[in-house]
Write a structure and sequence with these properties.
The complex is a heterodimer of chains A (383) and B (384).
Chain A lengths: L5 E2 L10 H7 L1 H4 L11 H21 L6 E4 L2 H16 L5 E5 L4 H12 L3 E5 L9 H7 L4 E5 L13 H10 L3 E5 L11 H4 L3 E5 L10 E5 L27 H16 L1 H19 L5 E3 L10 E6 L4 H7 L3 E2 L15 H5 L4 H5 L1 E5 L6 H21 L1
Chain B lengths: L2 H14 L4 E12 L7 E5 L4 E3 L7 H14 L3 E6 L15 E10 L8 H10 L4 E7 L9 E6 L12 H17 L3 E7 L2 E10 L4 E5 L3 H12 L3 E6 L15 E4 L2 H4 L9 E5 L4 H11 L7 E4 L3 H13 L6 H6 E2 L11 H16 L22 E5 L1
Parallel strand pairs in B: 8-16, 10-11, 10-13, 11-12, 13-14, 14-15
Antiparallel strand pairs in B: 1-2, 1-5, 2-3, 4-5, 6-7, 6-9, 8-9
Helix pairs in contact in B: 1-3, 5-10
Chain lengths: 383, 384
C-alpha cells in the first residue's frame, strides 16, 4: 500500500488549493486578531479580511455581501436556516416540503422539526432522480412556509430544476431554500437569477479548508430567521462565536479562484466525465445512475448488476472512491438516494461513486477505468 | 463655517500638532441616505472627527476604518449597505435605505496636491469648480482618490497618467458645470473599470446687507453659520461699525452709489435691502437694476412700500422688466409667521437658499418622490 491512491472522491472533500493555503497562512500567525476587536489594528486587519472574503462569496453566487453569514460548514448553515426560519414563522404555518434524496443534514433536521410539531412532505423522485414539479405544486398548502431542495445531489450529481421550482414556490409565497454545497464551483450558481431565498455552502468541497461554510439569507428575510446559538452577537447575532478568520479567508479565496474560470473548469470536468462514462458503459451490467437527468459534470454514480460494491471498493486498492456518500458510509446501509430512485437494496449496495475535481488528470481516469474493468472481471469469476 | 473649511482648519491644527489624518469622502450613494456624495469627514490619529459622512450611524465604524487606512497608509473604499437595514454595524436603523460608498484617504502632508491641498484650492476660490475623486468599486484594486480640480475653463493643474481617461473626464466635467449635477462615471478600458465622482463645487454665496441695524446684525450672524460671505453696508457710522458684526463680515460705510465699487457681483451675490430708510433702499435698488447677474434682491417692508418704489422709479422713466421683477422679493422672506428679528432672518435666509438652489421652499412632505433626485446618481458608463 505504498503507492498513493488516485483520489476520485471530490464530493466527499477536496484538498485545500495551495493558493488558498498561502493566502490563509498569515492569518494564523501574523494577522491573528479577533475580527470583532474594534480597538486595534489586529482586529481591523482581521475584519477587513473577513469583509473581502464575504465579497468573494457574494460575487460568486450573485448576492449582496450583507446577505452572507459565515458558519462552521454547510450542516450548521442548514440547521440555522431550517430551525431558525421555522421557529420564527410557526405563526404562519407548520408545513414544509423537501425531497427524499436530500442530504442527511437536511433530512435529520427535518426529522427534528417533525418532533417539534412541524409537518414535512418528502417528495419522491423518479428512477432518474427527478422530482415531479406537479407533485410540488399539489403538496403546497396554506400552512406551507418553506420548501428546500438541494441544488445538486451529492451521490448522483442530479441537478434539481431550481428556476422552475422557484417559480412555483414564489407564486405560492413559500420561501425557497437550496443546499448548494455540491453545485458550487461545478456549475454556475446565480441565486438572484434563480430566485432562491436561502442557500447553504461548504468551503471544503470547493478547495477551501474544512470547518467553514456560509449561509445566504435574502435581504427580504430580515428578522425572519431566529438564531439557534447565542453568544457574542457576531454575524448579526445569527451565528455568534469568534469568527474563524483563516478559514473564512480560505473560503473567500476558494470562491475567488472559482470566479476566475468556472466555465473552463466545468468543461474540463465534463470532458473527463464523458471519457469515464463511455468506458464504464462497456462493462456488462453497468448502469449510470441518474443518467437521464441533468447532472453536475464531476459526478458519476454507477451500479453493476451482480457485483458487491463493498468487495469491489476493497479490490480497487489504488482508487479512493466511495460507496454512497461519506457521511453515511461509516455504517454500511444501502443509499437512501438510490433506493428512492427505485433500486433494490442489493443493486444500491453494488453502486459506487466517482467524483472528480480540479486536480484529476485524464490519465488517472484511464487508469481508474482499467482498474475497475479488471476488478469486475475478477469478482465476476469468483462470484 | 462650511464643512470643507472646518475640515481644512482641523487638518491644519492637526498637522501643527504632528498628527496624521485621514479624509473620508462619500463618493457614491445608491438609494437614500442622510448625506449625499460629497459629504466629507476628517479623522486625526487620535480619532478626533471633523465634518460628517452620515447622520451619525456610520461615524463609529468609519472612525475605525479611517484609523485602519492611516495605519496601512493606503486608500480604502468601504461599502455601507443600509438597504436591508439589518447591518449590525449600522444597527441604528434610521430608516435610510441606501448603499453608501465611502473612500478613506490617509493624507501625506509632504505630497503636493494631496487631497487636503486640493480642497484648500477649492475653498480659496470664488468660482465654480469640479472636483474629481477616483475610486474603484472593486475594492481590491487601487483607489486613486481625490485627483483633479477643473476650473470653469476646464483647465486643471493636475495630471492623470491615462490621457484618454483625462480627456473623457474633462468632457464629463463640462457637463457638471453646465447642468450643475454631480456625475458618476464608470470608465472601461481593456476590460478594467475605473470609477470617478465628479462633484460641482459652488463657492458660498455672498450676502450683501444694505443697512446695518440690529436686524441686520442677527441676519449676518445666522448667515455666518451657513458659511456665507457677508458684506454689510450703511451710510451711518454708528451702525456700520465692524465691532457690531462678526469678524468675518466685511463692513463698508459709504453712500449707496459708492459701495458697489467694493463688491464683486456675480450670480451668487444676493442683496437684502434692510436699511429702514426708504430713500437709501430706493437708491440702492436703482443701482442694482443694472446687474442682470444678481439672482436675488430682497426688500424689507410691506408690499405698499415696494409699489411706491415702482411708482417712483416709473416717474423717473424706469420700468422694470419681467426678469427684474422676478428676482425682487418684497415683502422679503418665506411665509413662516416670523415676528422677531431672528425669525425674520430665518425666513429671509430660507428664501435665498430656495432661490439659489432653484427650489420652491415647499414642505418636503408635499414633494413627490425622493428628497434627492435619483436619476443623477446612476453611473454613466463610457468605454475608452
Amino acid at each position: 500500500m505504498n503507492a498513493k491512491q488516485i483520489y476520485l472522491d471530490y464530493n466527499a472533500t477536496t484538498s485545500t488549493d495551495q493558493r488558498v493555503l498561502e493566502v490563509m497562512l498569515p492569518y494564523f500567525t501574523e494577522v491573528y486578531g479577533n475580527a470583532s476587536s474594534v480597538n486595534h489594528t489586529y482586529g481591523w486587519d482581521a475584519e477587513e479580511a473577513v469583509t473581502i472574503a464575504r465579497e468573494h462569496i457574494a460575487e460568486l453566487v450573485n448576492v449582496k455581501p450583507t446577505e452572507i453569514t459565515f458558519t462552521s460548514g454547510a450542516t450548521e448553515a442548514i440547521n440555522i436556516a431550517l430551525m431558525g426560519y421555522c421557529k420564527a414563522n410557526q405563526h404562519r404555518g407548520n408545513h414544509m416540503i423537501t425531497c427524499v434524496t436530500e442530504h442527511k443534514a437536511v433530512l435529520d433536521t427535518c426529522e427534528h422539526l417533525e418532533q417539534l410539531g412541524f409537518k414535512v412532505t418528502y417528495l419522491p423522485v423518479d428512477p432518474s432522480g427527478k422530482i415531479q414539479l406537479e407533485s410540488l405544486k399539489s403538496a403546497i398548502t396554506e400552512r406551507t412556509i418553506l420548501a428546500t431542495f438541494m441544488y445538486a445531489n451529492n451521490e448522483t450529481g442530479v441537478i434539481h430544476p431550481m428556476k422552475e421550482i422557484s417559480e412555483i414556490t414564489s407564486s405560492h409565497d413559500v420561501v425557497l431554500m437550496t443546499d448548494a454545497t455540491q453545485a458550487l464551483g461545478k456549475i454556475p450558481v446565480n441565486l438572484k437569477e434563480i430566485g432562491v431565498d436561502i442557500a447553504t455552502f461548504s468551503s471544503h468541497k470547493i478547495y477551501g479548508p474544512k470547518g467553514v461554510g456560509a449561509l445566504y439569507l435574502s435581504g427580504h428575510l430580515k428578522g425572519d430567521v431566529l438564531p439557534i446559538l447565542f453568544g457574542g452577537g457576531q454575524e448579526r447575532g445569527l451565528r455568534p462565536g469568534t469568527l474563524n478568520v483563516p478559514g473564512i479567508v480560505g473560503m473567500g479565496t476558494a470562491c475567488e479562484i472559482i470566479s476566475t474560470d468556472l466555465t473552463g473548469d466545468s468543461l474540463r470536468l465534463k470532458a473527463l466525465q464523458t471519457i469515464l462514462e463511455n468506458e464504464l458503459l462497456t462493462i456488462e451490467g453497468l448502469a449510470i445512475n441518474g443518467a437521464n437527468s441533468p447532472r453536475i459534470p464531476n459526478t458519476t454514480n454507477f451500479s453493476i448488476e451482480g457485483v458487491d460494491g463493498s468487495r469491489l471498493v476493497r479490490t480497487l486498492k489504488n482508487l479512493a472512491i466511495s460507496q454512497g456518500s461519506a457521511c453515511t458510509s461509516s455504517v454500511l446501509q444501502p443509499s437512501h438516494v438510490l433506493k428512492s430512485m427505485g433500486m433494490s437494496d442489493d443493486l444500491a449496495l453494488s453502486s459506487l461513486r466517482i467524483s472528480t475535481g480540479r486536480f484529476t488528470l485524464e490519465e488517472e481516469i484511464t487508469e481508474a477505468v482499467l482498474e475497475i474493468k479488471k476488478a469486475v472481471e475478477l469478482l465476476k469469476v469468483t462470484a | 463655517m462650511r464643512e470643507l473649511e472646518s475640515i481644512i482648519s482641523a487638518y491644519e491644527l492637526a498637522t501643527a500638532n504632528n498628527l496624521q489624518c485621514t479624509l473620508a469622502t462619500v463618493v457614491h450613494v445608491e438609494g437614500s441616505s442622510y448625506r449625499k456624495a460629497g459629504a466629507r469627514m476628517l479623522v486625526d490619529e487620535n480619532g478626533v472627527m471633523t465634518g460628517a459622512i452620515s447622520g451619525g450611524c456610520l461615524e463609529g465604524d468609519a472612525l475605525n476604518k479611517a484609523l485602519h487606512a492611516l495605519h496601512q497608509n493606503q486608500n480604502k473604499l468601504i461599502t455601507y449597505d443600509t438597504s436591508d437595514e439589518h447591518d449590525a454595524i449600522i444597527g441604528a436603523q434610521l430608516g435610510c435605505n441606501g448603499i453608501i460608498q465611502v473612500l478613506f484617504e490617509p493624507i501625506d502632508q509632504n505630497k503636493n496636491g494631496n487631497p487636503i491641498a486640493l480642497l484648500k484650492k477649492l475653498v480659496d476660490s470664488k468660482t465654480k469648480k469640479v472636483v474629481v475623486t477616483m475610486f474603484n468599486l472593486n475594492k481590491r484594486l487601487e483607489q486613486k482618490g481625490t485627483q483633479l480640480i477643473f476650473d470653469q475653463n476646464l483647465m486643471t493643474t493636475q495630471q492623470l497618467a491615462d490621457h484618454g481617461l483625462l480627456t473623457q473626464i474633462r468632457t464629463d466635467a463640462e457637463k457638471v458645470l453646465k447642468y450643475e449635477f454631480p456625475h458618476f462615471g464608470e470608465y472601461i478600458k481593456a476590460g478594467s473599470k475605473q470609477h470617478a465622482f465628479l462633484e460641482l463645487y459652488t463657492p458660498p454665496p455672498t450676502l450683501v446687507l444694505v443697512g446695518a441695524g440690529n436686524d441686520a446684525q442677527v441676519l449676518s450672524n445666522m448667515a455666518a453659520i451657513l458659511g456665507w460671505d457677508i458684506i454689510v453696508t450703511d451710510g451711518r457710522h454708528t451702525h456700520a461699525d465692524a465691532n457690531r458684526f462678526m469678524s468675518s463680515c466685511q463692513v463698508i460705510v459709504t453712500r449707496p452709489d459708492q459701495f458697489l465699487r467694493n463688491v464683486n457681483i456675480d450670480d451668487r451675490t444676493v442683496f437684502v435691502l434692510i436699511s429702514h430708510n426708504y430713500n437709501y433702499d430706493l437708491a440702492v435698488l436703482k443701482l442694482l437694476l443694472d446687474f442682470p447677474e444678481i439672482p436675488y434682491i430682497g426688500i424689507l417692508g410691506p408690499k405698499k412700500k415696494f409699489h411706491r418704489m415702482l411708482d417712483d422709479l416709473g416717474t423717473e422713466g424706469i420700468e422694470l422688466s419681467a426678469d427684474q421683477l422676478k428676482k425682487i422679493h418684497s415683502p422679503v422672506g418665506l411665509n413662516l409667521g416670523a415676528e422677531t428679528p431672528a425669525e425674520i432672518a430665518l425666513s429671509i435666509l430660507s428664501e435665498i437658499q430656495a432661490v439659489l438652489s432653484n427650489t420652491n421652499g415647499q414642505p418636503l412632505k408635499d414633494k413627490d418622490g425622493a428628497i434627492h433626485e435619483k436619476k443623477h446618481y446612476q453611473f454613466k458608463v463610457t468605454s475608452l
